[in-house]
Amino acid sequence: MSSSCGGSCGSEQKSSCGSGDARLAQQEIAITKSLGRIKNKILVMSGKGGVGKSTVAVNLALCLAKRGHKVGLMDVDLHGPDVCRMLNLTGGLVAPENPGDLIPPLTFNDNLKVVSLEYMMKNRDDAIIWRGPLKIQAIRQFVADMDWGELDYLIIDAPPGTGDEPLSVAQTMPGVHAVVVTTPQAVALADVRKSINFCKMVNMPIVGVVENMSGFVCPHCGETVDIFSKGGGERTARDFDLPFLGRVPMDPRVVMAGDSGVPYLSTDEDSPAIKAFDGVVVAIEQRLPPGPAMVNPFAAPSCACGVSACGSK
Length: 313
Fold this sequence. Notes:
Layout: H1 11-35, E1 38-45, H2 53-66, E2 71-75, H3 83-86, E3 106-109, E4 112-116, H4 132-144, E5 151-157, H5 164-172, E6 177-182, H6 186-201, E7 206-217, E8 224-225, H7 232-239, E9 244-250, H8 252-260, H9 272-287
Helix pairs in contact: 1-4, 2-9, 4-5
C-alpha cells in the first residue's frame, strides 16, 4: 500500500491507490528506458517571454540535425505550442498498430523527430486550460509514451519563467542541461538571472547563455544597428561564471521562415544569423559531444511491481 494513503483508505480506495502506484511504477520504467537511449538532453529556457526562445530551440535542433546528429525536439510550451507551425508539420497523432506500443513522433526529416501537444489537438486554435498536475503528466507522457529511439540530442522548448514545465523537465529527466536565452536589454536580463538561479536551485547544469536579437544587420548595406543594446548576455554570463555561447543577430529572413514553416536554417542560404547559429551549435557540441548513451542514475526496478527488492525475477 502506498504511504500516501495514510492507512485510512477503504478496500476499494486501497485497490485504486495500488493500481495507481503500479501505473506510476510502469511509467517510471518507461521513462528510464527512453532516457537511457538519449545521449544529451538540453532545455532551452528563459525567464522572460519574447526573447526568441522557440526560434533558438527550433534552429538549434535544425542545425544539429543538419550536421548529421539524431535529434528530437520536444515542445513543452503547453499553452502556446509553436514548434509544429514553425516547421510546417501538419500531421496528427497516429495511434500505434499494437496496444502498448510507443507512439511515433512527427518527423521533419531523417534526423529530426518532433513532439508537441499541438499535433495531438483536433483544433490547433483551442486554448489549453490546464493546472499543474495535468501539465506534469503530459510532459512525463512525452518521454514515456513516444518512440524517440536513439538520439544524440533531445532539445526541449520550454515556456518562459520557472514554473511547472521547466521544473517537471528537471525532475523527470536526470542529466538535463539548460541553454539560457536572453536579449541584450536590461529588462530581459533581470528575468534571465532568475532562470540561472532556478537552474542552481534544481541542480541543472547550464551549457551557456545565448544573446538573441543581438543587433540588426541591414540586408542592404551590411551595417549592424544595436536595437536592443549589445553585450548584456555576455556580461550576465561572465557575472555568473557561465560560458557565453554567442550572439545571434535579428534577421527578417529567419522570422519569415518561421512564420511560413519553411525553416531558413534547413536551406543552403547564408547570412550572419545562420553563421551565428552555427557558432552556437559548435560551442554546444564541444561542451556536450554526442558520445555513448549516459547511464541513468535511477536504475529500473527488477519487475513491473515497482519494488526492486520484491524478489521476482
